[in-house]
Amino acid sequence: MRKITAGLFIALDGVVENPQDWHFPYFNDEMATAVDRQLGAADTLLLGRKTYDGFAAAWPERELAGDVDAEMAKRLGDARKIVVSHQDLTFTWRNSEVLKGDLVEAVAALKNEPGEAPIGISGSVSVVRQLLEVGLLDELHLLVHPIAVRKGLRLFEETDSALPLQLLSSDTFKTGVVHLVYAKAAAEGTEGYEYAKQFLGHEDSQA
Question: Which of 37, 102, 129, 172 has the fewest C-beta atoms lying within 10 Å of its C-beta?
Fold first, then answer.
C-alpha cells in the first residue's frame, strides 16, 4: 500500500493560512532538505484547488527560468497531479487531472495502486483534515515556525472530539523552526495521566 505524506508550514499558534506572509524569513537549507524529502520524493501529488492554483502559477515558470529551484520545479511538473475540486478545470500544467468521485473512496483506491514512491500533499488544509480524520494520511509533516501570526485559518478546527497523534520524529533547525512528523494515534494516551496523578496527589498534600 502506498504511503501518503502531507507537509505544511505552520505558525506557533496553529495558523497555516498565507505562509508567504510570514514563512520566508525562516527558510534555509535545512528546511529545503525537509521539503524535498517529503514533497520532492513523491511521484504523485494530491492538492486542493487553491494550493494547486498557486503551484501552477509559479512552478512552471521556475522550471523554465532554470534557477536554483529548477530541478524541484521539473520534478513537480513531471509528477502526476490530482486536484481535489468539484468544478471542471482546464489545466495548463502538465500531468494534471481532477480527482473523480468521493475523496475518501478515491484516495483509498489511490493508496492501493502499484508504486513505491509516496503520494505527497502540500498545504491543502481541507484535504489534510479529512484524510487524517479517517486514517488515510500516513505522515503529517509540520514545519513549526517560531512566530505567532494571531490571525488566519488554523490547521485544526474546533470539534467535539479530540484527534490523538503519535510523534514519529522531531528535528530543530538553526532558525528555530521545528520539524515534527506525526501519524494518527489509535487512541488518546492514558498512562501519562496515571503517572502524573501521583505527583498531583503529592502537591495536594502540600497545600
Answer: 102
Task: State yes or no: pLDDT of 203 exceeds 60.
Answer: no
Q: What are phi and psi of 57, to 5 degrees?
A: -80, -20
Parallel, antiparallel, or unpaired for β 139-145 and 178-184? antiparallel
Q: Walk across the sheet containing 4-11 and list its strands.
A: 96-98, 80-84, 44-48, 119-122, 4-11, 139-145, 178-184, 165-172
| Rounded distance between C-alpha atoms, residue 85 and residue 152, angstroms | 22
- Give 20's contacts (C-beta < 8 A, 6+ positions apart): none
Q: Could you tell me where the beta strands, DSSP code E, fall in 73-174?
A: 80-84, 96-98, 119-122, 139-145, 165-172
Q: 103, exposed or middle or buried, with CB in 10 Å at 0-12, 13-18, 19+?
A: middle
CB of 26 within 8 A of CB of 176? yes
Q: Are the C-beta atoms of residues 90 and 80 closer than 8 Å to each other?
A: no
Strand partners, 152: none
| Helix (H) / strand (E) containing 71 | helix 70-78
Q: Read off the pLDDT band of 63 (50, 70, 90).
A: very high
